Amino acid sequence: MIEIKEIEKYYAGKKALDKINFTVNEGEILGFLGPNGAGKSTTMNIITGYIAPTNGTVLIDGFDIIKESKKAKSKIGYLPEQPPLYVDMTVKSYLSFMYDLKKVNSNKQEHINEICEKVGISDVYNRIIKKLSKGYKQRIGIAQALIGYPPVIILDEPTVGLDPKQIISIRNLIKGLAQKHTVIFSSHILSEIRAVCSRILVISKGKIVADNPAELLSGASRMSNKIIAHIDGNTEKAQEIMKGVEGVLEINDITHKGDDIYEYIVTFEKGCDIRREMFKALAQNDMPIIKFDIVEPSLEDVFIELTSREDVPDNDQDKNSESLYDKSEETSGDDSGDGSEGFAENIDSQRSDSDDSDI
Amino acid sequence: MIAIFKKEMSSYFNSIIGYIFIAVLYLFSGIFFWATSLFSDSASLNGVFANLLMITVFLMPILTMRLISEEKRAKTDQALFTAPIGSWSIVIGKYFSALAVYAIGIGITLVYGLMIAFYTVPNWIEIIGNFVGLFLVGAALIAVGIFLSSLTESQVVSAISSYAVSLLILLTDGLAGFFNDKILHETISYFSFSKHYKSFTLGLINIADIVFFLSVCLLFLFLTTRVLEKKRWK
Lengths: 359, 234
Known about the structure:
The structure holds two protein chains of two kinds. Chain A is α/β, with parallel strands linked by helices. Helices cover 36% and strands 26% of the residues of chain A. Chain A contains 13 helices and 14 strands. Chain A has helices spanning 40-47, 69-73, 91-101, 108-119, 134-146, 164-177, 190-196, 214-218, 235-244, 275-284, 299-308, 317-330, 343-352; strands spanning 2-11, 14-24, 29-33, 55-60, 63-64, 76-79, 152-156, 182-187, 199-204, 207-213, 226-232, 248-256, 261-268, 289-294. In chain A, a hairpin with a 2-residue loop joins strand 9 and strand 10. In chain A, helix 4 (108-119) packs across helix 5. Chain A starts with a strand and ends in a 7-residue tail after the last helix. Chain B is mostly helical. Chain B has one domain (2-232). Chain B has twelve helices and no strands. Chains A and B meet through helix 2 and helix 3 of A and helix 1, helix 5 and helix 12 of B.
């Protein structure tokens, strides 16, 4: 549906995008992840034809965004970073204008009402946009992107400024779009990207640093070698018992959690599951385990690791994405997202050791 | 194009700008009509038109200053340039909306003609000639104004630069007088709006003058689309 080939963009001689390549298939929800200034918005502006790339081509459903711009643009609904709202207009006249601008052919009133209903702005339909809250403005921006139900919908940080309830409803809306539309959407909120997207693209310093399905990032943590445990009882004794368990390497980050309960981060040798042994050993000594969990790397850690590396991979996209693909399989994230300290340092060493310790 | 035109028209009349422009134009043309026609018992509207040229030059930036600069500042241009329309449609839609407001404004002069018709037979050829002339001058100034508006994100910069250019255009005649060299003098005075406008005030509709004003319109509208395109490629 969307093909991006060798896109490069220079701003005043400075390289903003460096040979971006990817394709998005029909019905896919692509999450676009990256720190500020990585080139997310630039890429989106190029895909939608707002700015032209210095080199490279963008095809929307087979139409070149530069050479056949009208045909290509008619297939795109776009919400830029800042919603393009005429704040002096009412919601009604604004959406009516956008409808005319996009040359949509359908029952106008019905269509606009349906979209307002979907994004939840029906109650402010006759109000002037200027007077509305940021959440409403953002949703009006989403509404204009949906007008005409274009096959490709591109949303640049659509949930900014929304409250948690609205965020959930917009996420569900985006998920619902996937059946009939191809969606690219960017966000800083990683859990959001994971909740919505079928595929995640990480961009950093104008390059794509990872391209992998969300389930790999969110799958079981097969590479973790840390356990977080809350144990009731004398801390010295507890440490002694745990050190006695085969496979335990070190115990650190001990914190007092109230009464006689302490939190421990236990690092163990990869490839062995120490949980059962640990439980037995502690139980024998009458030291109840209050909480017991594997420390899994969060998507945040994966993200920080991917985007902060000095040696951003070279231009060889195929090779690059392949190797990262492998890697992320090993560094799959978690759902709890808590207590993942030290993951970033370990990622490389874990990578070399790929016989999964599937706990 | 029609969508843009409609939107701009409603934005002129949903804000105060359209009303101010028309009200000021009516006020001054009314004063001049009273002074040069009614008060001095004259059936000619030449005095009104001569003064309206000056007023038009001063009022025009009000109409054009925000047309494109405001889109850039509010980033609403992202909606326009990612919609399936070309930059020509955008520019022309905006241009015609300003032109329509302007036409509503100077249309009052035709009402004055009708008022005169109650008392005597007005010189309609002269009035129509004047009207066409004023309309074309305005059309050219709007094109220049849109072009200047496309160069900046600030309405103030856009307005001030339009004033400067409009004044320069008005002063071209005087400027030409400083040059003794015949070719230079002729060249500069060729670009004088008031020189081309003058024959209209006599009721002469001269093809060369019409072509001059239309060329100015086209040139600046074309330059505007180039500026917008250039921004995308920068």
